[in-house]
Amino acid sequence: MEFGTWSTLFEAGKVWLVDLSWGTKEWILEKSDGKTYKITGNESHKNNDLIARVFHEDTESLYEISYEQVNGYRCLDEHGLTEIWSSNHPTKNTFKVKNHGWHKESPLTFFMGNSDEWSHLLITDDECLEVICQSTPQIKLIKKISSDGNAT
User: Fold this and answer.
1) Closest by alpha carbon to 14, among 64, 73, 54, 67?
2) Distance between CA atoms of 77 and 41, rounded to whole angstroms?
3) How far apart (Å, rounded) are the C-alpha atoms in residues 68 and 76?
4) pLDDT (0 to 100) of residue 112
5) Cα–chain-centroid distance for residue 110?
6) Where are the domains of the chain?
7) Which of 8, 23, 44, 116 lies at 20 to 30 Å from 64 by C-alpha?
8) What is the pLDDT of residues 49-91, one digit of tens each?
9) Rounded-to-integer distance, Cα 130 and Cα 76, Å
């Protein structure tokens, strides 16, 4: 198992996963009887397969993480990643990993064993989000949020 750096504005401090949105530009179902169903996807997924919003408590900031060309993702509690926790993993909220259990269990997801394929991990106190994507996710600040719930 190998770890890499994924530098973010919220890699240190307390971070919370607010929500996830998986989608596509267009969903099509073609039946053997010739019927075709076509549904337009949500506009927010015009350029991104997966979108996560996270709240960074230390800076009272809401961020959006956009993932393109996602090959797979999973969101689970920390118990599902015991192999990573029992290793000498980075202590930051965000980092990359490859050649771990999921990588070995799902070789098609990881390009038939391509050793250059990394997973991007977001670690919170409650959940762990692991995303396999070909490029570094894009992060943008959505807004600052005060303790009374109002945007600043």
Assistant:
1) 54
2) 29
3) 21
4) 43
5) 15
6) 2-31+38-144
7) 116
8) 899 999 999 999 999 999 988 888 989 886 657 777 777 878 8
9) 9
